[in-house]
Fold this sequence. Notes:
The chain is of the alpha/beta class and 121 residues long. The chain has a single domain, classed as Dinitrogenase iron-molybdenum cofactor biosynthesis domain (Nucleotidyltransferase, domain 5, 2-Layer Sandwich). The protein contains four helices and seven strands; from the N terminus they run βββββαβαβαα. The protein has helices at 54-63, 77-85, 97-107, 109-116, and strands spanning 3-8, 24-31, 34-42, 47-48, 51-52, 69-72, 89-92. The longest helix has 11 residues, at 97-107.
Amino acid sequence: MAYRIAVASTDGIVVNQHFGHAERFHIIEIDDNTYRFIGTREVERVCQGHYHNDSSFDKVIDVLSDVHAVVVAKIGSGASQQLESRGLTVYEAPFPIEPLIEKIIADRLWEVDEWRSPTKN
Length: 121
């Protein structure tokens, strides 16, 4: 089974975006021991200054509806809880993307996520 990850990054090289500030997510699909870049999805920023736009949050969730996990540089506890309540696993990992994906594969993190979030699998 393929496992899809949405990565918040401005350059596709490093996880460098706060969830609420992200305007795009790079989608990576892991299938057993391989991975491939699926594409980039544009979204409306959830954070609008000092408040969050619930409509924008729902739109981001819709855009990521086929994704199992979100990888961001930073995320607030409220947004993290919202994503997790909708079946997504959230990782704060401000690191280069390629070694991060290789670590996810090596540690087979999707197996843990299947147990934590059975609604997505």
